[in-house]
Amino acid sequence: MRAVVFLGLALSVIASSAVAEDIRWKPETLRPGDYTSIKQSQGGLIHHVFRGKSGRFYILDSYRGAAPSGKPVFSTYLDKDGNQVRWVRKDGFELKFIPHDCTRTLGRCQYTQVGSDKKKETRLRITTASGTGFKFDEHNASGQRLFGGKMELDARGNAGSGLITGNQGKQRFRLVGQAYQ
C-alpha cells in the first residue's frame, strides 16, 4: 500500500514538474480571430490576432491602435511550439529565423536571423521556465548579451505581461485583454 501511495505521489510531482516546464504556445487551442491585447511601455497598445495555419506554420497578425482592425503592422509565422520562423513588416521588410528563433525552446538554443536586406546574425538564446512563464537572455555570436527578460503565459501559451531589458532600454508589457471564441 505504501508503495502505491509513494508511486502516486511521485507521478503527481513528475506531472506537476512537466506542466511547470511547459512554455509551449498551444495553437491547437486557438481559433481564427482569437487575440490578446498588450499595452507596451514603448509603442502603446498592440493586438496579436490568430489568423490560422498555412502549411506547417501558424500566423499571428499584429495591429496597433484601439482595436485589432485595418492592415496588420506585422505578421509572425510560428512553428507548433511558438518559435518564430518568419516575421514580415507591412512595408515588406522580412526576417527569417533558421531553424527558428528559439523563443519557446528551453535551455541553450542557437539560431541565425536573416533579413530581407541579406544581413545575417547568429544568436544564442538561453531560456528557463518560471512558475508562470519563462525567463531568457539572448547573446550575439561574440557572447555579448543583447537583451533578456521574462514573460508570463496564459493556459494557451500566449504571452501576456512581462519585461525585456537590453541594448534598446527597458520595455514593459501588460496584458490588458483577451478574446477567445
User: How does the helix and strand content classify structurally?
Assistant: mainly beta
Distance between the termini: 45 Å
| H and E string | HEEEEEEEEEEEE
Note the total helix count.
1
The radius of gyration computed from the alpha-carbon positions, rounded to a whole number of angstroms, is 18 Å
Please mark out the parts with pLDDT under 50 across 5 or more consecutive residues, or reply none.
1-20
Compose a concise summary of this entry.
With 181 residues, this protein is mostly beta strands. It has one helix spanning 2-20; strands at residues 35-40, 44-54, 57-64, 74-78, 84-89, 94-98, 107-115, 120-129, 133-140, 145-153, 159-166, 169-179. Helix content is 10%, strand content 53%.
